[in-house]
Amino acid sequence: MYLFTLLGNLLIMATIWSERSLHTPMYLFLCALSISEILFTVAVTPRMLVVMLSTHHSITFVACVSQMFFSFVFGFTHSFLLMIMGYDLYVAICHPLRYNVLMSPRDCARLVFWSWAGGSVMGMMVTLIVFHLTFCGSNMIHHFLCHVLSLLKLSCGKETSSVTLGVILVCATALMGCLFLIFLSYVFIVSAILRIPSAEGWHRTFSTCVSHLTVVVVQYGFASIIYLKPKGPHSMDSNTLMATTYTVFTPFLSPIIFSLRNKELKNAIKKSFLRTFCPLNS
Question: In a 3-state reduction of DSSP, which class is residue 198?
């Protein structure tokens, strides 16, 4: 699954890079999304596999800090890029005549830059807040990786509860803000689709949104199940298992969804494959 995640996202990036017909804002954002998923997977999964497969279950303080920082950076960047992709679809469907003006190459590059900058700032802020706490007692992390909620349970001191609440509010505000803006984009998109007179026009327009909408539902659906479900007597073990599944499974699903549900990208991948391995038939 780890290798498929890397190869799937690399295939999407290589296809977008090699096919000039895909040099559009939507595929620029998809390429940036694939980069964030590759980096997130590389930052988190190898260490998690080492812990799961070896008998030496330990991690240094520096490695723990770096793992948390990069997981937050790439995780928040992923959410910001999904939000921008929703805005891109909104402009393409609701304001097609102004699309080239609103989504110029320079503006698209700025949006990608600010997504990465925002993810880096959020990752730095949350990581600094967490590791400025005092940790006492057991240093046993009940997780396969340096998960923020597991680390907060190990902290002590008067400021622990307020910092925990602050971290949760910061993360929830950023992620729910992205989700709200994506939802708002789709409200306008659906409104514009319903004004199209033909059913064929409905289908063709909505089909451009299916892959993005599916990835958003998968990411936020998994996150909601993990962090909003009621606590039970075995909640620690189940939360660890579900969070690990979420960490590995969502980057694994994204390239599958985008390559199968996006007809233009799927055809470009086939074309690139035939040109590379069957040049006489292309």
Answer: coil
pLDDT band of residue 88 (cuts 50, 70, 90) is very high
Q: How far apart are the first and last CA of the chain?
A: 30
CB atoms near residue 202 (< 10 Å): 14
Return d(Cα 79, Cα 175) in angstroms, integer. 7
Condensed to tens digits (0 to 9), the pLDDT of residues 109-140 reads 999 999 999 999 999 988 888 887 777 765 66
CA 266 to chain centroid, in Å, comes to 21
One-letter amino acid identity for 136? C
CA distances, 171 to each of 157, 165, 207 (Å) = 22, 10, 31
Distance between CA 78 and CA 34 in Å, rounded? 9
Q: Give which of 74, 70, 71, 88 is closest to 30, Cα–Cα.
A: 88
Q: Are 31 and 16 in contact (CB under 8 A)?
A: yes
